[in-house]
């Protein structure tokens, strides 16, 4: 169990500093004794194996005593952020079934909690019987319950056992060893699972836990001051926060010269962040770690290389006693072929609290290893030839626009290769009539030239992947745990344009503006606005050309529209072109057979002279990689033939 690992280290280094918070310090012996005293009190109140005990407290020494006391009593801790909305706190307290809440300096009357509240500022809790307790839990008992956001709007509690955490801690000590002079910084809010490595890794080798003040967890200058003050060697960063760290630290590296390991996790690590990091640091290891809460913090790890050029940063190889599967339709995918990442092994959670249906949906029988379960992450990945795994995005981040399947992460990667772009996020926004637009949010020190960015993207991406809109931000919105908050990105005004507005000068231009407005779904359009910069694309262009032909009896080509994409230019073109009256194709009545056209009769006669000729055949060969489902391909062709009459037409 976690507490047994800690107690083992207490015997080795009882007088070493275990925890430090501002001017307050505890040795291993003191922390052990205080948590023993609290644990005995909790046991008298009925806490035993698998009991869930809530703790609601800001970062402090008492937080560490409280968590360790819960574990020693045999229970599992449920971390609650005092700043969370009261309805969310009430839900977690009720859903977890806990009847004990440890807290400090928090007003709880409004929470309507009917269980027992224990105030951790009461020093008498820590001076009772300080001797070692009898074993209260085993490897298969719960260690903690962390609530994560759920698709239903209600958070879901993930059940993690001691064996899960101990497996992780042992592997962390192998990969990123803690020694007696090392210091791990606790800066992550304990309601997020990354905090587990901060809360427990430090004692694996007799190191120290330094606690960063709760109020300053997003203040980079404060974090840097904490690194300097406590001589921090190990630190976790969400990649977006690491990017800020790179910028704020500048060349003032003396403040952070104690660092040995920087562990990046929680979101995708971009190549530019890695390059910026290694432009400053030579002897600090930057690690990219990946894992859902349901697989106990980390399931894969990758050590970045200072001298390597990256297209993207892999999420690496599996952690100790974990197995990674890249799956599509219950079949393993070969190297290079995308699929959903599924994870099995010793990190797998017990499931979701009070939610058997969701547990059964996400923790499925492993078809590749009989008798085991695997967790379906919903993340799209692929194997690389070197044995690492590359993260491609969420499966639901794979969008389809105008029939094209698009990975938004690919657009982000290409934007980040532009020298003026520091950070980039791409989302899909809904326009009028459910039309979808790609919108890019940019952080840059320079004035953004949208035309220049579009030209850059067109060099690397097909036209349909180039964003219609670009929004410059001072900073990306982030959630309470430092991750990018996509929902908070402001929706651009679809009526905005690159040019200043100029009104129509004649009736033709007024008609063209009305047609453009119908096609683009934009109300105010000027005669200098570019059709394609307003969100137009090839499909819309064809609709536009058709409408112009119908209303004005003037025909323009797609090539002309691309060459003359403003109303002012089209006005001149249309005025000088000849009329070409629009005529609808007359639909004939449906029959069993139709008379062949002159060209078809000619082909029929020629075919009669040489029945073996393939002169009019149109052969084509397609090379497809990966596993092919022959039955599905045949079924697809059958449906195509059934749908399109022209494919079933023959001479008789």
UniProtKB/TrEMBL annotation:
GO molecular function: catalytic activity; phosphopantetheine binding
SUPFAM superfamilies documented for this protein: Acetyl-CoA synthetase-like, ACP-like, CoA-dependent acyltransferases
Ranges where the Carrier domain occurs: 503-578
Keywords, in A-Z order: Phosphopantetheine, Phosphoprotein
Claim: Phosphoprotein is one of the keywords in the record: yes
Keyword Phosphoprotein carried by entry: yes
InterPro entries: AA_adenyl_dom, ACP-like_sf, AMP-bd_C, AMP-bd_C_sf, AMP-binding, AMP-binding_CS, AMP-dep_synth/lig_dom, CAT-like_dom_sf
Domain of life: Bacteria
GO biological process terms, semicolon-separated: amino acid activation for nonribosomal peptide biosynthetic process; lipid biosynthetic process; secondary metabolite biosynthetic process
Coiled coil regions, renumbered to chain: none
Family: Belongs to the ATP-dependent AMP-binding enzyme family.
Stated name of the protein: Amino acid adenylation domain-containing protein
